[in-house]
């Protein structure tokens, strides 16, 4: 099998199932190597990402939530280590970026899709749920309605996403202590109700952003490459342990 380069990220306001297939051919999860039963890509030999890094596994991760909760800022913080200060134009349709992580000796490529939160783009988002291996649900701790809408987002996910998709709830903008209207305990209760891991993040300070994606990558990697006799990876326990060590905001 020849090595292939992953395609460059492109924004596509009019995305459809057909364009989703095109994205796969240009380097999305499923573009090269052997597809596993759970949809993960495991190349017969290491593949080359668009950044020039080799990887062993590739997974599609989606960021979902209301408009303005900071999905794009979280993605930019994770990918580039930067913060998008000031006002900026909301995401239109779908956009994605790639990053390769070293997870327990394996190179794991995350193809991270940033989705528009506006209602008019919701049908576009639905089409992408089906191929996602993991979904990060974001709300803004300074915006109560974004938190209240989490149940509606979770309902959509259960309707459109894969049954075994990895979920994580993130309360973003945790740095804005004086503007907070959603208590951390409220996020913990909602996460417990739906049986998903939870942590608070800050795209501005970088708090827990790397941890959130690393935890997801570890869960996906262990599902795909579990060695015989290896203890099952416990995502929620990992999140609790790591957030306790940093002293903030995990469940």
From TrEMBL:
Cross-referenced InterPro entries: P-loop_NTPase (IPR027417), Small_GTP-bd (IPR005225), Small_GTPase (IPR001806)
UniProt-listed PANTHER family: PTHR47978
Pfam families given in the database record: Ras
EC class of the enzyme, as a word: hydrolase
Source organism of the structure: Paramormyrops kingsleyae
Record protein name field: small monomeric GTPase
Record GO biological process: protein transport
Keyword Kinase: no
Family affiliation: Belongs to the small GTPase superfamily. Rab family.
Keywords, alphabetical: GTP-binding, Hydrolase, Lipoprotein, Magnesium, Metal-binding, Nucleotide-binding, Prenylation, Protein transport, Transport
Spans annotated as Disordered: 1-48
E.C. designation(s): 3.6.5.2
Nucleotide-binding in keyword set: yes
UniProt GO MF annotations: G protein activity; GTP binding; metal ion binding
Catalytic activity as recorded in UniProt: GTP + H2O = GDP + phosphate + H(+)
Cofactor(s) this protein cannot do without: Mg(2+)
């Amino acid at each position: 099998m020849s090595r292939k380069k992953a395609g460059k990220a492109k924004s596509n306001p009019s995305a459809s199932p057909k364009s989703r297939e095109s994205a796969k051919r240009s380097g999305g999860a499923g573009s090269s190597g052997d597809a596993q039963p759970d949809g993960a890509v495991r190349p017969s030999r290491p593949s080359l990402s668009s950044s020039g890094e080799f990887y062993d596994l590739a997974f599609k991760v989606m960021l979902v939530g209301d408009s303005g909760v900071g999905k794009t800022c979280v993605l930019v913080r994770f990918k580039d280590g930067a913060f998008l200060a000031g006002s900026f134009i909301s995401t239109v349709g779908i956009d994605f970026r790639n990053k390769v992580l070293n997870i327990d000796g394996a190179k794991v490529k995350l193809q991270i899709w940033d989705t528009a939160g506006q209602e008019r783009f919701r049908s576009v988002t639905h089409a992408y749920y089906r191929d996602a291996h993991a979904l990060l649900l974001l709300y803004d701790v300074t915006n109560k309605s974004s938190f209240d809408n989490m149940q509606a987002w979770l309902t959509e996910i259960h309707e459109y996403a894969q049954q075994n998709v990895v979920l994580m709830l993130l309360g973003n903008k945790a740095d804005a202590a004086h503007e907070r209207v959603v208590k951390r305990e409220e996020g913990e209760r909602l996460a417990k109700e739906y049986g998903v891991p939870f942590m608070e993040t800050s795209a501005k300070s970088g708090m827990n952003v790397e941890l959130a994606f690393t935890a997801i990558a570890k869960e996906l990697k262990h599902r795909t490459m579990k060695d015989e006799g290896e203890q099952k990876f416990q995502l929620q326990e990992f999140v609790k342990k790591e957030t306790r060590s940093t002293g903030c905001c995990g469940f």
